[in-house]
Amino acid sequence: MERPSLEFNLPDTHEEGKLYVVDSLNNLNKLNICPDESQRSLDEEESTGGTGERMAGSNTRNQCLFFVTFILTLIISLALVSFVIFLILQTRNEVDQISSRLLSEKKNIEELKKINNIILKHLNQSGIKE
Fold first, then answer.
1. Which key words tag this protein in UniProt (predicted)?
2. What global pTM score does this model have?
3. What is the rounded distance in angstroms from the CA atom of residue 51 to the CA atom of residue 48?
4. What are phi and psi of 12, to 5 degrees?
5. 52-80 pLDDT, tens digit each
6. Alpha-carbon gap, residue 66 to 71, rounded angstroms
7. Residue 102: its pLDDT value, please?
8. Cα(19)–Cα(26) distance, rounded to whole angstroms?
């Protein structure tokens, strides 16, 4: 790994010189700390002029997008589950109504059978036959 030369050409103002020295020390620190594999990412970052804030911003944006998508998925799932529960309850109510109607019709049919039997007995006793 080649070491960059540590030439300090300090600008005229004192503040700019401090910034240049701090930036140079940061670059040197990155070179000493980072392994060779991550050196490529540093080189790409330097070539694009980024300071890592773009990557951090992109990462934060990706996390935010993930959480928003996750929340929307949860809300849609909750809505679908609520709708299915509503349909189940509605179907149960309809089935209960139909079964109560069937029971009532069954009672009516049994009453009609009793009345029919009474009429047939009365007709048989009176001597009128078909």
1. Membrane, Transmembrane, Transmembrane helix
2. 0.42
3. 9
4. -65, -40
5. 555 666 888 889 999 999 999 999 999 99
6. 9
7. 95
8. 10
Separation CA 17–CA 49 (nearest Å): 20
Residue numbers in the chain where pLDDT is lower than 70: 1-18, 31-57, 128-130
Say how many C-beta atoms besides its own lie within 10 A of residue 75's C-beta.
10
Mean pLDDT over all residues of the chain? Answer: 78
Count the neighbouring beta carbons within 10 Å of the beta carbon of residue 42: 14
Could you tell me which residues come within 8 angstroms of residue 8 by beta carbon, excluding any fewer than 6 positions away? 20, 21, 24
What's the N-to-C CA distance of the chain in angstroms?
120
Residue with tokens 């790409």, as numbered in its chain: 44
- Calculate the alpha carbon distances from 75 to 8, 62, 80, 89 in Å: 58, 20, 9, 21
- Quote the pLDDT of residue 75: 97
Contact in structure between 8 and 1 (CB atoms under 8 Å): no
Residue 36's contacts (CB-CB under 8 Å, 6 or more residues apart) are 1
Residue with tokens 């890592």: 52
